[in-house]
Queue: 2 jobs
Job 1
Amino acid sequence: MAVGLEAPKTLLPVAGVRLSSTAAGIRYQGRDDLVLMAFEAGTRMAGVFTRNAFCAAPVLVAREHLAAGQPRYWLINSGNANAGTGAQGLSDARRSCALVAAQAGLAAEAVLPFSTGVIGEPLAVDAIERALPALYSGLSADGWLAAARAIMTTDTVPKGASREVALSSGTVTLTGIAKGAGMIRPDMATMLAFVATDARIEQAPLQGLLQAAVDGSFNRITVDGDTSTNDACMLAATGASGIGIQDPEDEARFAEALNALMRELAHAIVRDGEGATKFVTIEVGEAADTPEALAVAYTVAHSPLVKTALFASDPNWGRILAAVGRSGLADLDVNAVRIWLDDVQIVRDGGRAPEYREEDGQRVMAREEILVRIELGRGMARERVWTCDLSHDYVRINAEYRT
Amino acid sequence: MAVGLEAPKTLLPVAGVRLSSTAAGIRYQGRDDLVLMAFEAGTRMAGVFTRNAFCAAPVLVAREHLAAGQPRYWLINSGNANAGTGAQGLSDARRSCALVAAQAGLAAEAVLPFSTGVIGEPLAVDAIERALPALYSGLSADGWLAAARAIMTTDTVPKGASREVALSSGTVTLTGIAKGAGMIRPDMATMLAFVATDARIEQAPLQGLLQAAVDGSFNRITVDGDTSTNDACMLAATGASGIGIQDPEDEARFAEALNALMRELAHAIVRDGEGATKFVTIEVGEAADTPEALAVAYTVAHSPLVKTALFASDPNWGRILAAVGRSGLADLDVNAVRIWLDDVQIVRDGGRAPEYREEDGQRVMAREEILVRIELGRGMARERVWTCDLSHDYVRINAEYRT
């Protein structure tokens, strides 16, 4: 069902990164569910994690190990989130790290754990332990695509992207993979993203680059900074190309490529939204400030009535207007608000645009990709968020996920 | 599909109130869609209206006429919300009032208009005009049940309730009807409620009684005070019983009956929620204050993942826990949080309660009526909100409503 989304055909290897995937049988049968990513010594890492108060055990441990030093491995399992598992979950996450680190003769802090899947079930650490020898022996620079497949849960398409960036002293590579598909309210799905580059970047600027890229991508497909118990987005810079960022122009080029890659991954998650049949951009302009633009955009993007109308290809613009009206803006002058579906103006002067014809709205709504543009007439801020529709299949998928 | 909800068998007449319903053909065919309620001279009225910035034309006019004097009529149509209709909509609402008032030799301000149905279509005032003679001639004290049917849109069951209240100087009657069924996020459905009593109460205390009752009923099935473009809840006191409220004890008795009646109507809306198969109470206790208790309750109540799990009768308590975790509480100590499904404890010490067994959770989730109780361990505030599950039928109903 994914909207305009295909599996990546190739993903570029990143010097200094090796990956391996295997079927550990943690929950799924007959498919890979465990990934190890190994980074050469000297790799710098940055991370952005969920703000959910009930953050999962692996998130707590990953944060802790990232702060403790310079990790060398990421261990990722699908099928079990190791969330809501209390003290036992923490112990399981730590033990997984220790087992992986022991194979390389390192301390547990050298490993960052990530989990996605069902909440509240104990993690099968024994299954992970049994899989480790195969996982180690399979490490390869070409393992990106297999890893993208292994981290999937309700995803229907593996998600990955690569970029080459010409900097002043040479070309560096960026490759990333992501998973996530529960997109009616993205804060409820686990979104994991793992990006690496062979550029040489120190930890502090790396963290800044990652945060900026997340703000323009994964934080534009989520609400109010809400995130699931397990969300994490990681960026590693191995430095293996020997090429650093020399000047502001290099930095701009690198940031632009990173932002575009992360946006592509974020859009892929929306396009693969559970039950999605439409890819919808909500653009809010002429807002007084960014929070206001986002408040309106998210209210529209999360409205089940708007989302079911999108699913039905029904230009029920009244539902869009009602969502704008209840998004909490102080002193909104409804007569200044204009709304378009792609190039078709549907709202002006507090009501339906006089020239609007139902067939024009239907023509736009029949498309797979739709832009809902709302101009508030209050200021200069403009933001975009991305979402999908609400279909029968969303309910089916989420009613049947565990059973 | 309504959960444990039957049409009221009888509704008590209220002295001083006459009602009439007719098929005006505004949108629906072969059913009543227009209601007139007539109140005797001296009736006091109070109203609570939507806070949506795009409030509908009838809401603007009803507010204006209520402020202007002592209205004598409520005119209610279903099938068309007269919302998002700009200047024409205002003009149509005013003209409807003038037409009704003219039949009684009164000014337009004597009539309050209410509309529910599709947004953005022009109101068929001519159809209303043609129906007025029949509407007038049909006015009767026994018209409550027919009116409850005529104001329905996607409702499957008419909603109404009556109470008799013994006050120190005699017994007064309370009868109310309501409509509304779009309940996954109640702020998006039009909820209309019309309540009358033959008690003698002045306008200021009447407004206070209504506001308090709304806060404990319709505002507990809605989020953050969000409301649709058309929501309105009206309370009329005809005084025709000659019985007033003499003392604080009378006032407490009357308020208790009014609150119970409004809660019954609000629950009926949830029980008839679009596609609902479960009636769910979310209780949040040990909160630091009321806003915090409501924030947690609404986050859980609106989570599509929780709602689809309820539909599937799946005790996926991790989704409840994740919703609590992202509800925005500062410094939430997750280890202090406990969660129950009815009498079955599912969460303690930051994870699944050790004694919890899946079959116990399934036993509760199989019920039609479920209490989700969350204790935060932060204070003394406690609130309840009511919601329903998210089913296939919700999507079907809302994808097909206009088409």
Job 2
Amino acid sequence: MSELRRDPIVGRWVIVDVENPKAPQDFLVEPHHYEDSTNCPFCYGNEYMTPPEIQAFRHEKTLINRAGWQVRVVPNKFPALQIEGDLDRRGIGLFDMTNGIGAHEVIIETPYHTKDIPDLELDEIEKILEMYCMRFKDLEKDKRFKYIMLFKNFGSSAGATIDHNHTQLIALPMIPKNVLEEITGASKYYEYRDRCIFCDIIRQELEEKERILSQNKNFISFCPYVSRSPFETWIMPRAHKLSYCEISKEEIGDLAKMLKEVLRRMKVALGDPSYNFILHTAPINSEERPGYHWHIEVMPRLSRIAGFEWGTGFYAVATPPEVAIRYLKEARI
Amino acid sequence: MSELRRDPIVGRWVIVDVENPKAPQDFLVEPHHYEDSTNCPFCYGNEYMTPPEIQAFRHEKTLINRAGWQVRVVPNKFPALQIEGDLDRRGIGLFDMTNGIGAHEVIIETPYHTKDIPDLELDEIEKILEMYCMRFKDLEKDKRFKYIMLFKNFGSSAGATIDHNHTQLIALPMIPKNVLEEITGASKYYEYRDRCIFCDIIRQELEEKERILSQNKNFISFCPYVSRSPFETWIMPRAHKLSYCEISKEEIGDLAKMLKEVLRRMKVALGDPSYNFILHTAPINSEERPGYHWHIEVMPRLSRIAGFEWGTGFYAVATPPEVAIRYLKEARI
């Protein structure tokens, strides 16, 4: 018999197939491939193909918008939202609308066309993680923005349209629904128990030991009890901090190590799948809600969302996290 | 500049590209194809390949579990949930779980291997719609069930694994999150205004005339102002009724006509895309919430859900409903 499991933060149920769990080879992984780099706008020498750069880490004596960068941030050429203008929120009968104000940036994480995070050196990954923080601090100054969503689509099944390794961020003039649900759920728990629900989840996962993937001084990674997709993995700082930007230098080092390991294990165990990773962090320019705890959620995209998931918000998980963890741990990296 | 639009029921925002809207040919539609029918478990003569049938409309003097049916309902061979057993809800530390109790049925809508609803005769579609209702009435008797989710995955991009035309239903021991959000949103509006929000949406759409696809005596179809995906279309009964099962014989006739037309227009305008359709109806064996209004939501699957949608619950809609409607209306059917 399958199990129904309930997420304690947002109340979502998932159906977990504990009886006939799928192994990695049971999923149809669309093979990831890199197109030829000649026309890649994210490669050295092609900097003119992107809008002018916003920020970059560069080797000494290299010029802006030229080769020689290590991490480069540019506006999205086809932005979902644009930075100039007024919100001008108004009602249209029953409905509400505002102008599409926001920022949509691309963080080109490496000059190497065919390297993803698992293939990079630790100091290269640290630079990426530092850049995330620098972009947050810069965009936070714009008081119109209430949330910055940082996410990565790797591979076409995960929605990537350019295969050169990159992350995107969108600064939004409102707190999005999914984030608000998570924060509201965590706040309710905090009010009731006077404790952070994420800290309690870490504690329980460490006690049960069944779903822990790896640990270091500052971070732990695990496949959550209420995974929405097979092999979903969360990376969580041990320290209770609301925002990603509170990360210390030492923590950046530990996070780089863990992110590399987690993505490397997924790549080996699952055959280089497409994946999304999403940074969950507190809103900006908003009232502080003490029950939150920033973290990263990584989801390999092994199955498609169909009518049942659309309709219910339930997820059917073909590999229980207790089984997924074994494949991830056994991967020879 | 794009527009941000807010759903008045659940508070979700979507980003609508009103500046450079995508036309149907701008989407990469995975061509739909039907496998050879020899081993199709839903074809005449292969009835032994499915679990024994639960219910069917049959030609006179044909035998159960043999050819001669018009609509046939069987248990899903690989059910997400199973009907026997106790729920046995319990806590695991922070988490909640129950046994995977429920019903998971397949409604084989036609014996023709390569015909979907747009290709069927109206009386054939009416039989399908009647069967939905009969299954609801039967499953409602089981007091463990709180919700019946009826949905269709057509085409592999929409999550279908068998290409012979069918619908699925899952009876669940709880009201799923997305449904609860919709009902709660509608109830709040009802308490505040003493009116049904769906009736008000119909009224506004009829007044604005900008997004109406078709109308008949009992139903209207339109591309909603806050679509989540391009060419999303809702079919809504004019009569304020909570549950699908309150449908009258006359309404079934009108719904069959409209469903055929809407799906036919999508098929022609978009090049036979995969789609999901989801029946939104009130919970069963639960307290009645008067602000609800059953309807059907049809979503062609033209783009993939990526990190931004996962993280935020926002959707980026490349074709505004005001533009989508023109292509659907112009389709020669």
